[in-house]
Amino acid sequence: MPLPFRSRLVCAAIALCCASAHCAAGAPQSGPTPDQLAASGIHHAPRTGNGYENNDGPLARGSVWTWRWYRWTHGLPPPPANGYAFPVDHPDVAWIKANRSDDTMTWIGHATALLQINGVNVITDPMFSERASPFTFAGPKRRVPPGLALDELPHIDVVLISHSHYDHLDTASVEALNAQPGGPPLFLVPLGIKDWLAKKGITNAEELDWGDETSVARLDFWFVPATHWSARSLTDRNETLWGGWVVKTPAGAAHPFSVYFAGDTGYSNDFKRIGAAFGCVDLALIPVGAYAPRWFMGPQHVDPQQAVQTFRDVHAKKAIGIHWGTFELTDEALDEPPKKLAEATHEAGLPDDAFTVLHHGQMIRLDASADSQPTCSR
């Protein structure tokens, strides 16, 4: 994700860089077999001498410098209509820390969500730092505090990483989680990121390719394709993989539930492939922000209208919009994505509560019982 700079060197680096509970792995009983995944079009990621590639071809790459110049000359992004005092909920931290029975999801901010499912605590793309940047003095600054602080988290069993960009893979956050009382979590990461973690002293990690699966504690995990790219420096573009995650309770669970975490992605046929492979998911966490201008961000970030189509493609029962309202990464105002999402869901004829957003820190209870959930989207 390209980011602001104070010097030419800093700008170049940021622009290119940002743009134990573990059980033995085995074939999960709650989802598609490898053959079924392959039949749906989900296979290992293509790789060439230029690094990993997307399923539907290379991303179109607009000029970073043209975009930066346009932002400077037009004063973008505009401030939110009502300022930066976004509502932040204050969940019952003691209850969350003690909870091992109720299934919940708490939006912490950006792409960071706490999932408590089947007694397992899972966190997605943990990002608690003040800047989404390799630098402490430059790069997008956090505009809204995390809905839960690091020391307010329950003991985390599993960390899911979608890709290497600084707003999704934050050094300070993963180091803090690795040092949590009670032992480190298991880090489930895309190909190439395990070595990066090892250099930070984080060794309890497993890396997956697209279509790979693993079983951890009382949950099954699949790494699935996304349309994006990776880099943390000027020289490592696409050297590590990117993707999303499907999380399911095992077959026979007392309270079956499934979640799709999209990570960071442009729109592509990958979503139809995921929908074909998994049939239906109870909850989808789909990015709805960081989409403007479309000529530059379109290939790598869905906009709210495309997010609604993604919701339909993966056959989700309900979706929560993420990847908005925390860092000013692109040209839309920080409070615009929920408005555009509401317009898109209305235009699509969806119920008002089918695809919504949460306050930072807001917790929802997850219930997949037949009388509490809508049917899968189509």
List strands and helices in order, with pairings.
Elements: H1 8-17, H2 34-39, E1 47-48, E2 51-52, H3 64-74, H4 93-98, E3 104-109, E4 112-117, E5 120-124, E6 158-160, H5 171-178, E7 186-190, H6 193-199, E8 205-208, E9 213-216, E10 219-224, E11 244-248, E12 258-261, H7 270-278, E13 281-287, H8 294-297, H9 304-313, E14 316-322, H10 336-347, E15 355-356, E16 363-365
Parallel strand pairs: 5-6, 6-7, 7-8, 12-13, 13-14, 14-15
Antiparallel strand pairs: 1-2, 3-4, 3-16, 4-5, 9-10, 10-11, 11-12
Helix pairs in contact: 7-9, 9-10
Signal peptide: 1-23
Protein name: Outer membrane protein romA
InterPro entries: Metallo-B-lactamas, RibonucZ/Hydroxyglut_hydro
